[in-house]
Batch of 3 targets.
Target 1
Amino acid sequence: MQPGRSPTDTLSSVTTTFDLSPSFKAYDVRGIVGETITVDSVRAVGAAFVDSLELAGETILVGGDMRPSSPEFSKAFAEGATLRGANVLFLDLISTDELYYASGTLRAAGVTFTASHNPAQYNGMKMTRPGAVPVSSETGLKDIQERAERYLADGSVPAAAVQGTTSVRDVLDEYSRFLRSQVDLSSSRPLKIVVDAGNGMAGLTTPAVLGDRILPALPFDIVPLYFELDGSFPNHPANPLEPENLLDLQAAVVQHGADIGIAFDGDADRCFIIDEKGEPVSPSAITAMVARREIARAQAAGEAEPVIIHNLITSRAVPELIRHDGGRPVRTRVGHSFIKAVMAEEGAVFGGEHSAHYYFRDFWNADTGMLAAMHVLAALGEQDGPLSELGREYEPYFSSGEVNSKVQDLQGAIARARTEFEQEGVVVDDLDGLTFTPEHGDWWFNLRPSNTEPYLRLNAEAVDPQTLEDLVQRVLVVIRD
């Protein structure tokens, strides 16, 4: 940014150091508009994207969410990409899973401008190779960053001998029809559904997929909350992982006597579920619920032992159900790049995370909140009981959620926990942090250090609330300075 210039003066402030590392993360690009992500840097990234992935002469997809800076950033990215010889197909206003749909069905690389659940002053880029294959720091994002920094240092993006063209395509209709083909909801019993879009992209996709904006009406009465697309998020942050952001939805479900509540994050690639009593249904329970349906569908198609992916801090009820239903559970580290990679390696039909990301083989191994929500609606709609009863089938254990402790000596704290519990014969594995599992199986817990802060993250689960409380307090005494 130019010296003395306010970050809010212009989106096209020039970075003087040409260091894009503050906005380039492990899986995507995310930064403060006008400060760590600017029109100039985005233009350079568009050029670098084409060069790094060797996309000259190919069509690439460019879209964005409802944040005010997304249209200008989309245009800048396209300028850089076409200068380097790629043809840009503008998808315009899209959810992140619309990009995955388009990348998968059109076999094209692409980018969407979004900062997901981050506050209004942020924006960013999620990039894919053709077929919705993610671009992460391990699969090309670092090279894109370095090339973009060089273009910024040179002061311009050189034009290729043959420059690209631009065109526009709206994929909302195709996306909606595709999702409807994946889950048949037409025979569901009538359901009243409250949907909190959080002023994010679900305000566009929900009426198209679950309503009658494009396709015939389903037997659903949809009560909309915050469907107006507004990247300033005037009602609450579009981050349903934080309990306070679910309060409006919980109250509306009870007020309207609804059967279910669904909350989406800002770019609509995650969904969170509320039962008819206004209580959250855990992402582990949703993972198990959808896994059961996907195992049955794969078995009906002749698949002997369908593979389901779950990360290591998902409830142990998930692998137990998968085995019970004839599937094979595969445990992975936390993080969508790990999940997607293992999904592809194993040919898994489905994968779920505690963070409410849900991945489907029939959706190019990508995550989609809408498709997961449709599976939950189908499971609820094909039986007569309330969601609270259905959910209990998949939540036999009690979970702590993520408990963060500020610890100066992270490795010392982890070592103390290992020493403390190994003395009792507890099995410890180090797939991602350390996971502690006793032989008797009444509880387990995982400790993972944060990559960016002096925090140690504890996730624990037990057979009853008192065992869980005792376990959490004991671990915290051991690890806290």
Target 2
Amino acid sequence: MATGQGLPQDLPPGRLPLYAVAVAVVAANAYYFHPIIGLVVRDLQVDAATIGLVPALNQVALALGILLLLPLGDRFSNRTMVTAAISVQALATLIMALAESFPMLLLGSTLLGFATLAPYLMPAYVSKRVEKRRLGQATAWLTTGVVAGVLFGRGIAGPMAEAFGWRSIFFVATGLLLLCAIGLPRLMERGERSPAGEGGVRERLGYLNLLLSIGPIVRRHPEALLSGAIQGLSFGVFLALWLALGLHLTSPRLGHGADVVSYLAILSGVGLLTTPSLGRLADRIGARRARTLFLCLQMVAIGSFAAAGDAVWWMAVPAVLMGISGPITDVSGRMTILGLAPEIRTRLMTVYVVLMFAGGGIASWLSTFAYDLGGWTANVTVAALLSGAALVLSAWSLWRWGR
């Protein structure tokens, strides 16, 4: 069956897993830094608060790139945009691999963030090609790709950095991105114009007007702002905990290597197994109800981190709980947007993702700053405050709009 624009109603069999693999390769780049942050601090001779600028500006640049570039996905070919963005990412990781100074590393990481569009173009692309009853499952596949990328990035970076130096991981990332830039466009349909409608592309909006059109669209759909704010807080919790863990576990007091951080991160890969089934659960019980439920689980995970103290293997329990709660919180948040009119989904997703990464950027710097001031205990406190705020907002959205 075809849509009014000649697009397939359903993706070919097996296409979603392949998209998930490509998304994993692209998403991994933001997470290589977590286990190796302690090694970079010592090599470049900077303090914890300063090194926090690397992930912080990466996330802020990502939010800026999403704001300025992602809306073009409602007008131009997602296929072309994905190819260009991944190619720029390959250049950025090469700069990071060759960096001999903190400013050069910061430049590469910031450029990398700005060009990270593919994981956020793909949900809108896919949502136009699956039936609404399969939206949760399809979104969960792509989120599983992100989870796999997070797991791969954090899982391989520590051992590789210990064996070959921290720059080696960014050389590997460059090669993987080049392969992805060649392969992913071959799996994407060329025809992808959205149907005309509310704010649709047939309006032929200029670039500035396209950006300005986000305001009226959001006023008609204010939940996009709320869902983005909730995800920004939840994602901030994730970054705050894992960046501080990279500093805490490799500190002189505990003396673990970066590989231990990676091994702990691998345990959070349980999300690979749970996210698809939990996506179907969100289809059944409702996105807002699922999000509120799993934000409660996130609070339990933070309490477990606090209870674990310095016992690294006791941290496995909250790591697993975070691996379960984080991805499905994101899936359910996206579902509140991706069920709306197809021709405005990319712009609504722009709002959601900008708020998500703005929150992540602020939390990245706040976490390393808090660690500098009060160590691991201060960082866990910051995470608990962020998670509590997300839970309150999610509960309010459930009361306001229902399941």
Target 3
Amino acid sequence: MHTLPATEIELAAWLRLSLAPGLKPAALRLLLQAFGLPEAIFEQTPEALAAIAGEAAARAALAPTGADFDTQLDAVMAWREQSGNQIVTLDDPAYPPALLTMPDPPPLLYIKGRLNLLHTRAVALVGSRSATPQGVEDAERFARELSAAGVTVVSGLALGIDGAAHRGSLAGIGGTVAVIGTGADLVYPSAHHALARQIAVQGAIVSEWPLGTPARAANFPQRNRLIAGLVSGVVIVEAAMRSGSLITARLANEMGRDIFALPGSIHAPLSRGCHRIIKQGAKLVETPDEVLEELGFARRGAARTVPSSAHAVLWGDADPTIAPEVRGATAERPKSAAAQAASASRADSAIADAPAPPRPPVDPEAERLLSALGHSPTTLEILATRTEMEDAALQSTLLQLELAGQITALPGGRFMRASHG
């Protein structure tokens, strides 16, 4: 066995509890409130622990450590020694105060980067992995302006809206926090390695999962609860009817945080989840200023996070259309613009009885342009920027799509997808 200095002994005790199979954070918090530090919990009888948190929690807390515990402890200590890495326990003054308002705060947090960002006023910005070009632009703009106002933008490092939120916020003074569903020594998805490195320098990466934990679908709803816990409000940019983002919204509402959603076209599959939660009481927002005003955040300066009071979003009984499915995380891959459009179309078909729209042209250029168009009126200049097509090719492809009935030309040199059915 190791001979450890006091601080390492304490960390070992926290690590043992955090790794105990079947010991839920809410039960652990009850035990800590009753007995103090982890070392005191290990000194109790099973009966004493069971009286506080139940027999299952007592068994889990007092279970002997696994054969590889010393190896895990060595890895944690080595990780903590690396520049920028920190481990914060529930009794540490540096523990994020907003998370203490949760019923089940994690016993251990692995943090890479700026710990101080976890003590600032913060807003979560989340949405679909298969975001549209318009959704990505909206997420980046909201994040950029929120960050410029000194607000920390929190998201989940996923593809689509999450990545856009992190990129936009890195341009401001507020910074960004990525709450991840893997161990803090891993990056998922792999396409975000460079973004994660930038966040670790300019922002913070947070995980409650043991080092080496791979991406698992079941981990992401728990990750979403931390996103909700860290912030005063959650902004949903794009979400299908069954979306992991709606888990975050529901959990945030249960914690008394404010919920906001961006509206979109009634024809856009990724607007349906947003429209649904707006109908249920989430606040419809069109500008970042509306979020700042609603939360009482001034435009400049940074202050300590104060979780907002509960507002009357009436979610009612469990709704099967709101209880989201989290797709197998290990199957996620970066999607092309054409694949995003196809994914959105499949989602639409799954939740609507209306006839499917006509198939887009098979010409790759036309597919790329149609995907870049999204579901909102868009100017020629924006389309040129999104597609990087030459003027002649752009004009020709627009004409082809218009003749095919796929798009409609609007006054003012704007274009939008045609409505079918």
